[in-house]
């Protein structure tokens, strides 16, 4: 009875636990929150890909070649001023010549190169490419902040774009989004918790555990930044899952504690039973969600790995807090958990009596479904399939400036480069690195072959020394356009000079490599998730049927979620409502992230529901009754938990970063589908059809589970009850 002993320990050491928790909160609030200054943007590339190796080769052989800032200078609207006018030239060159060499390593412009590629077709615009000083992204970001205001040219419109300004704008937008999401969700969460519990004292506990989970996860990420790069986007998943799951776990624990108190238990016994039942379920649920998120660590992209780290930290801290700090708080409060009651009609009803009702609304729903399980099953599956059909039209792409809100300066600069200049992706060219290019004639012939590839606008040797040449290829359109992705493949297919190594890099090449990398690892990730979830659910419930059924139902509900995302984001039907620009594709890493998070959350609710059904099954041996009573005891709580976490993640749908909004919408849809169609309808229908086979396992596994399975003892079957083997299958 490990969890029961843990509950009694938390009761007896409650003051010590709370003192330690307070010290941790103080440390996390001071040191853990400093993580924001150490997070990185980007991280969408595979470090071992050809495009990443091209960057490394350039830096090793020719020095760093990347353009960090692209500044677009435009004549005032309606003006006849062109780059050929002295006033235009003087305004720009005065700015560029005055930039400090300590912050700017190199500047390329129309006046320094004489290249018309720097001039727009109507000659009313030009751009300058800047390379900043600094050994890493943080240092270059600091350099940009020092010169940003100095880039303004008198009498001209100035647009600052490029990788560093885009990263800066994304960082600022992420911080603003988190603040807005919290301001939107927190008041609603407080009101809903008061409605659910009918008591201010009880309602405050989930919020306290949520805050602890977020601070704890930030501290974990802060530690991680000392050994590896961590993406700034990880703070979004920390806020979503840390607050959402902590509230979910606290809701289950506090509800069970109140139920035990109303059943007449003393406070210590109520804490012990709560941790032994709801606490065990929370522990198992936390492990399940953490394992699902650990699938993200199988990808090489730092973005996905950072999301995995952040999510795992958030889940583990939320779980540990719900098993330690929360029982200690309940031990201190005791019957005062119902203090500061709110005069609501439902607040006077005993949660214990409601949960025990045999004819409650959830039990009646379960019995209604189980009277006609096959029609319900067919109808729900049909709805999910229809919702999922748009996913058959999915197209994947990458991240560019269009993830930012329309009107953001760095996005405007990127759009100007794409539409106003002859080489549309001049700010993000395709970089071809030719190593061991000691024969000039062979290099010249190879560059000529690159120019002949359809879609290439220019292909010029930008620099060549010590046997390495850097060829810059420009083309039309956005770097993420399908035509430019196909162009990368065509360039890589050009025959290379004998004895040379050719690496094709740049933003378009990075996107090609990203899609290939995700596609290569996705089957292994799906296998990992299926295998680990199967094992964990078997350990929890002693059945090989329930894990298979849960995995199939989750895949079905997630396909519906992805169908909604294709319809809403790829096809743009939600763009007016949410205020984003549809790019015509889904960013490739987001479905992976949403899949891992939603898969874990759906298993979370599966564990909560099946744990109570298993408890009733052990008591009664009656499958139909166990399902009805299990749903009655958990239906309201699961619905409340789902609604609360929807408020948390749904607030991120208002994000100004398109793919963060997509995560918010995707998780909201996944949770709503799972908590309604799946838990309330599919689970009762399938469990009725399967009958005693729900709990079947091969005899050796059944004997092993009876001895070693993850069960907290349970209640013995009452005399005269039938065993599972004696029950007839139904349907």
What is the compact description of this entry?
The chain has 731 residues and is α+β, with helices and mostly antiparallel strands. 62% of the residues lie in helices and 8% in strands. Strand 7 (456-465) and strand 8 form a beta hairpin.
The CATH architecture of the largest domain can be named as Up-down Bundle
Spans of at least 5 consecutive residues whose pLDDT stays below 50 are 346-357, 712-731
Q: So how many helices?
A: 25
CATH class of the largest domain: Mainly Alpha
* Helix content estimate: 55-70%
What is the count of structural domains? Answer: 3
How much strand content do the residues show?
5-15%
The CATH superfamily of the largest domain appears as: Multidrug efflux transporter AcrB transmembrane domain
Mean pLDDT: 86
Which of globular, elongated, flat, extended, rod-shaped describes the shape?
A: elongated
How large is the radius of gyration? 30 Å
Distance between the termini: 37 Å
Lateral strand order in the biggest sheet: 2-3-1-4
Provide the CATH topology of the largest domain: Multidrug efflux transporter AcrB transmembrane fold
Main β-sheet description: 4 strands, antiparallel
